[in-house]
Please model this.
Amino acid sequence: MARITSVRGRLLYNSRGSKTIEIDVISDNTHLGRVCAPSGASVGKHEAVSFPDNRPEKSLEIINANEKKFVGLDPSNLKLIHDTIRTIDSTANYSKIGGSVAFALTIASIDSAAKSLRIPIFKLLSNDMELRFPFPLGNILGGGAHAGPGTPDIQEILVCATGSKTIREAIEFNLTIHKEVGKILAKKDPSFTNGRGDEGGWAPKLKNDEALETCARACEQLGFTLGKEVSLGVDFASSTQWNEKEKKYIYDRAGLENTPEEQIEFASDIIKKYKLAYAEDAVHEEAFDDMAVLAKKFPNVLITGDDLLVTNTEILKRATKVKACNAAILKVNQAGSLYDALEFAKEATKNNIKIITSHRSGESVDSHISHIGIATKSKMLKVGVVGGERIAKLNELLRISEYDLIRGMAEI
Ligand code: PGA
Ligand code: ZN
Model:
């Protein structure tokens, strides 16, 4: 059994150019596990905080001061690593040490352990022999908190090759559609700068409906039938629009002011018109009952909670009680440690809630998430389409396909 021989943090930068932390865990003076923490722009109220007082430097100090607590531990014992972190920070949202530390330290330990055992991370995280590839779900056009003024209010229009039989085809279809959307945008507006948002989706000056039309047209022009070979999805990220005082969703760019009832209609119309396979955060993060209305109305669509659930097992339990959703985003850094996130995945699976493992808008080129998506039996892996930090996760899926251990694509 390997033993951790050193733990070291350093300050680096994420894909948005913001400071973050990377942690190296070395076992037996040989096996390097290295993980850089991501961060979000549309952050849920109840997420783990990234850094204490927003200061990565503080996280770094704490981790380096506590190295000895981890030296000698078995890096594959995720619970032990998690519990040891909890001896330093027992706050619910990791406000003392920073969720980024919990994230990077637990995944780096597993990375190191997998290397010592010479097995891929997904094998270490799951003994299941029936693992499948999640369908890549990628942002092709967006706005909201991920892009500047003039772009759609809707944060993300996503594509997923729901009819693909192989992981390579699923990735290729997403890439082709992203390119086609770019071509349509350039044709439509010769002044379009090829601008892209934080996750690599195009960021044109378009209203919501024009943006959705453009994406649907791109799929059709390529000969795809929506809902068959490929499907569209939307992350409404509705907490961004929700105005608690006025009790309305304010769409500044589209000029809409939706009451909660109108918001349900607004989302329902989009789901129906574009035959969406996936609808995320169609209402704000505390509107469990409104989400339940959508989940009931669209049992065959992944009615997904992101800000709604923030990868928090207790919140998920509340949501399942009222049947608020049939799918859940799993973002490890929302929960904090990988242990927390896997507990969340267990609870979701137990309740028949489908898992979508997801990146953050501020990312690194790490690709551990691809293994986590497989090990948690995620139906989809939401990691974008283009951009070095997004393609790194997709390329890892292709490398994993060489192992010949995974039996085809997930069943959605
Ligand atoms: P974030 O957003 O990573 O910027 O928080 C992504 C999402 O809302 O899914
Ligand atoms: Zn989201």
